[in-house]
Design goal:
The complex is a heterodimer of chains A (about 300) and B (about 325).
Chain A (H helix, E strand, L loop, with lengths): L1 H6 L13 H9 L2 H18 L1 H4 L31 H36 L3 H15 L2 H12 L3 H11 L2 H14 L3 H8 L4 H37 L10 H10 L7 H29 L1 H5 L1
Helix pairs in contact in A: 3-5, 3-13, 5-6, 5-8, 5-9, 5-11, 5-13, 7-8, 8-11, 9-11, 11-12, 11-13, 12-13
Chain B lengths: L2 H28 L4 H6 L6 H11 L5 H13 L13 H36 L4 H15 L2 H16 L17 H38 L2 H9 L3 H13 L1 H9 L1 H15 L4 H11 L2 H29 L7
The chains are: A mainly alpha (about 300), B mainly alpha (about 325).
Chain lengths: ~300, ~325
């Protein structure tokens, strides 16, 4: 009976109504901002995948006597103070920045979803504790906590990923909690419980499928934040200096003192960060609009 | 506004402060790496000195005794010594905190005023070119890392305007206590302020716009409009007054985010505040400074939130009664 209710159109606002990818795509295609974001995103993902083919040089290759050259035919983004090709570095940096962004946001999403779903489903002490726990993390200044975590874990890409993932889950937890709170009030949940279903069965079979689309939208938004934070943490010296990321290029530009003379050192990596973050944000907002009808009205 | 409300918020404040103190303690002791390795890594100390310091920090004691010692030291304002300079961390933090407060408060006031004005206009002329432009600009500014914005402004400021790009004051050519000193400070503040304002203004625009749009749909607005009140009066007397309230809570809630922006801005422009202190501590692996700075910054945010909670019912009597 509960299955019949769920698939019927009596709950048009439930996210699990988007049964097929095809149907979802039909709605998404009509969203202009979402399509702009997705297009930019696909371009950058292709750059990351085909970095080896696109980059004319090895990003670490040193061109002797060609330090801080402005953009030209051989080096279209110029060279840095060590004589390395900046175009190749920005292309390879795409790969690292995207990977860091994805892994960190998967960690944040997992933590946020688990905490949010339990806080929303259970009542009493469990909810009280999880709410306090989340509020506590919300109030702590994120960047400073990430800095502390990453420096205790020791500078490097793994520490940066963990620091971002373990701090950036509060938004997801809140969204998942409010979504769970509304889903658990539906009669099909009650029916399921009356039919003898246990808590974990209900959480897995009824709550999770309805929370997942919103979580997905939230994850895409977190990737944007994670890429921003990766660049900041790496810029502050918490990354791995041997790993080319956009933040790392900017850190070298800053610490070498080359920025005031070599604009080409600073502009391309920064614009890349901006475009990718913008693309993830546009895509995420559009997904949220589609999956979370309450947002659509505003 | 009743006593029970204040008492409840006060109790919550005390509990939160205690949790932060405990979190700060365990963060630096429980994570991978033992406290000796962590606290004295890279300090270049002799075995004897390590023993002496261990005793001083109580690191040779069981964890719970260490915790009691930490609580006692912290509550008496002793945050330990810097690895690098051996200076008390508290003495390093106090001037840095003042410098950050100067930069952040001026930047926040400017961002809030600009944010309110742009947000109001965008809500009033919803769907207009101005509204769309404001939203787009906000989104683009949000997508840039603040430090990168600072680097770009630095390049432009140096090349085209000859502005100073590092520190708070010039070391030569300025007589202390004169108008020249103020002008000099102002010049040093231009670029960091511009960076922070551009980084902060977007969120205020969005919230002001959202709040005003909410107010527009309220019954009293429809009544006021039906009574024939002029648009100007409607916007300012009814819309503005009601929409500006959420901003008060937002300023406190956003302090954490603003501090993140300040850390980046101070690093880029060598502004001698908490951000620069933290940046230098990262590079030197100066854990006592990091631990102290984290505690102070977090406490500042918590106390600001508490202040907003207490002030809010005065501004909006509907809150705090339930």
């Amino acid at each position: 009976m509960s299955e019949a209710e769920k698939t019927s159109s009596s709950h048009p606002e439930l996210a699990s109504n988007y049964r097929s990818v095809k149907e979802f795509w039909r709605v998404y295609k009509g969203n202009r901002t979402g399509m702009v974001g997705l297009t930019i995103l696909i371009i950058f993902i292709l750059i990351a995948i085909f970095a080896q083919q696109l980059a004319p040089f090895d990003p670490n290759q040193v061109f002797m006597g060609q330090m801080l050259r402005p953009p030209g035919w051989q080096h279209i983004f110029g060279t840095n103070e060590a004589g390395q090709d900046l175009f190749s570095q920005v292309v390879y940096g795409t790969r690292a920045s995207l990977v860091v962004g994805f892994i960190a946001s998967i960690i944040a999403t997992a933590v946020g979803t688990i905490i949010g779903i339990f806080a929303g489903y259970y009542t009493g002490l469990i909810r009280e504790f999880l709410l306090r726990f989340t509020d506590f993390f919300i109030v702590i200044p994120s960047l400073v906590l990430m800095i502390v975590l990453a420096s205790i874990l020791g500078a490097g890409l793994t520490s940066v990923i963990l620091a971002i993932g373990l701090v950036g889950w509060t938004g997801t937890a809140r969204v998942v909690m409010s979504q769970t709170l509304s889903v658990r009030e539906y009669t099909f949940i009650e029916a399921s419980r009356a039919a003898g279903a246990g808590d974990f069965y209900i959480l897995r079979s009824h709550i999770l499928p309805n929370v997942m689309p919103v979580v997905f939208a939230q994850t895409v938004l977190i990737v944007a934040n994670s890429i921003l934070y990766e660049s900041v943490l790496t810029f502050l010296g918490l990354g791995n200096p041997n790993q080319v990321t956009w933040g790392q290029i900017l850190q070298f530009a800053f610490t070498s003192g080359a920025i005031t003379t070599a604009w080409w050192y600073v502009v391309p990596p920064g614009l890349s960060i901006m475009l990718v973050v913008l693309a993830f944000s546009l895509t995420g907002y559009s997904l949220d609009e589609i999956f979370n009808p309450r947002v659509r009205k505003i | 506004m009743n006593v029970a409300y204040v008492a409840r918020k006060l109790a919550s404040l005390v509990v939160t402060i205690f949790l932060v103190l405990t979190f700060n303690f365990y963060l630096f002791r429980v994570l991978p790496g033992n406290p000796f390795a962590l606290l004295f890594r890279g300090a270049g100390l002799s075995a004897n000195a390590v023993r002496g310091l261990s005793a001083q920090f109580g690191l040779d004691q069981p964890l719970w005794i260490q915790y009691v010692i930490y609580l006692r030291n912290t509550l008496t304002g002793n945050l330990g010594l810097s690895f690098q300079t051996r200076a008390p961390v508290t003495d390093l933090i106090i001037p840095a905190l003042i410098n950050t407060a100067i930069l952040l408060s001026v930047a926040s006031v400017i961002s809030i005023v600009i944010g309110i004005l742009i947000g109001m206009l965008a809500a009033w002329k919803r769907g207009s070119k101005f509204d769309v432009g404001a939203s787009a600009t906000t989104l683009v500014l949000y997508s840039m890392p603040t430090f990168w914005l600072g680097l770009v402004l630095m390049v432009v400021g140096v090349i085209y305007f000859g502005l100073p790009v590092a520190g708070m004051r010039s070391f030569t050519g300025v007589t202390p206590g004169t108008l020249g000193e103020v002008v000099d400070l102002g010049q040093h503040m231009v670029l960091p302020l511009l960076t922070l304002v551009l980084g902060l203004v977007g969120q205020y625009v969005l919230v002001m716009k959202g709040a005003l749009l909410d107010v527009f749909t309220q019954d009293f607005m429809i009544t006021a409009r039906a009574k024939g009140i002029s648009s100007q009066k409607l916007l300012w007397d009814h819309g503005f007054k009601n929409a500006v309230l959420p901003m008060v809570a937002l300023v406190a809630l956003n302090l954490g985010l603003s501090i993140g922006g300040a850390v980046q801005t101070e690093t880029v422009f060598s502004w001698p505040g908490m951000g620069l202190l933290i940046y230098r501590a990262i590079l030197a692996r100066d854990y006592p400074i990091l631990q102290g700075a984290f505690l102070v910054v977090t406490l500042a945010v918590i106390i600001a939130n508490f202040a907003a909670d207490i002030l809010y019912p005065f501004l909006d009597p509907r809150v705090g009664e339930s």
